[in-house]
Amino acid sequence: MTLLSKLFRKLFVRTSGGVFLDGLPADVLGLVFEILCDLDDAQQPYGHEVHSGTCLIPLSETCRNMRAVTMPWIFREVYNWRWDGTDVWPDTLWCLFRSLSTVHIRDHSVRRPSRLLLTPQMYRALPKMQELTKVTLRLQAAIPIELLSALSSVGSLSVLEIHQVRFDGPSSPKDLTFPSLSSLSIGICGFRGVDRVPDIDNSRERDNIVTFLRNVSAHLTKLSISGDLLSSQFCELLWCNLQQFIVSEHAPLPFIPVANLVARMPELRSLAILFTARAPDRFPVPITVGASDGDSLEDFTPHLTSVSLANVACDEPIFGQLPRALESLHLMPMWDPVARDIQISISQGDFRFRGEKEAAAALDNISHLDQLTDLTFTPFDCPPSSNLIRKIARNFPMLQCLHLGYSILINIELYLVEFPHQHYFEALRLIRRLRHLKLSFDILWDSLDRAPPAHGAYLLMQELPDLQRVSYSWRHMHSTAPHRWYTWDRSLLLHPAPPRLPEAVEYERERI
Fold this sequence. Notes:
- It is a single chain.
- By secondary structure, the chain is α/β, with parallel strands linked by helices.
- The chain has 14 helices and 17 strands.
- The chain has helices at about 1-10, 25-40, 55-60, 65-75, 90-95, 120-125, 145-150, 200-215, 260, 355-365, 385-395, 420-430, 455-465, 500-510; strands at about 45, 50, 75-80, 100-105, 135-140, 160-165, 185, 220-225, 245-250, 270-275, 305-310, 330, 375, 400-410, 435-445, 470-475, 485-490.
- A 15-stranded mixed sheet has the order 3-4-5-6-7-8-9-10-11-12-13-14-15-16-17, covered by helices on one side.
- Helix 11 runs parallel beside helix 12 (about 420-430).
- The longest helix is centred in the middle third of the chain and has 15 residues, at about 200-215.
- InterPro entries: LRR_dom_sf (IPR032675).
């Protein structure tokens, strides 16, 4: 860090004339800092959380002006533990953290097998952070009532994320309203995947969660919750302003149809049911989310425009209950994240269509959704054929964004990354309104990640004159980090064609 500080000092030594970094307008400096933070790789333990201001510390040491400008960026986010994971911050510091926008709180260390104490000083300091908008919790013990009370008193808090939740402690007070809270996420997933300790009192936990949700249901606009935590009591709550509802991890036991979950969400716009298998099997089975005799979702959610479903069969009952005016539909495979030291297998419990026949049947069962402008169709274990793309073109004439994807196990399956056959382009041209094509590849091994496949994007832009953007992504099945998208626009054609992937060239040689 000292070397970086010296480098910055040399870069910004004042000479006659010119523009200096500390003299730039605040909005321009903000863009510079944002780029630096995006490029930074400094990660808190194992990549689960990122401290976005670390890279600006050397810059803050160049002069007083830069220190004043960078401080809000450096201290907009803070963790309650120290970098080495051995201790929490001294109590005397908490009273100084007034301009934070994000606080991450843990009661245990990931780097070392040690416990981190949640102190009364921290509880008292939280309500005094006048600009605090987001808090994330990762606790092994049940959430202390004192912590919930302190967070409820933060008038500016709008986002609360509770990971690896344990809610089977004392009952939540009924007066914790969280007045500014608009987004709430509660999930069981943590650093050890979705495995939970066996001594959780599930009945008490569900009662406590319903009490907690009842306090905030009137003003939430976004809710993400694990299906493991849902009970029939959830269906009795009224969600007057909820616009986005995400249910993830595992389906509730006993089963609750989707129509029952959303029956009291009149303002809902976006619905995501992203269930994964509780016990991954070598031959995964689809997860049912709708009832065969269920009512149309339009009866309860007249404003619903987007639906996402994971690991469903080609004849999933909910297909017939989706509103005809739906604009976005996303069908995808999903799996539970696992800890880094756990061996993964070929199947992670994600369900994929077994061959093109099932995929075609799924397209037929959603063909009534002819107003779709955005379609994700990625539950394949092999590359989708050009015939399947033609069926998509026939069924969805309004389509503007199409996302296709499949799993890759060996190098030879990389060939579709670059669309070597002309009939793929001919099929894609039939989607007259297509403006954005997205392609994602699920991979088990890092060696299959070939980074940005620019040559494939170049060919697509060249062959499809109305296409405006092409995006590629490699989804690492063992990683908990968000997968990265590589996107190109038509300016790519202003340059020579990028080189091809070596595996694609070898594949074509073998076919000749």
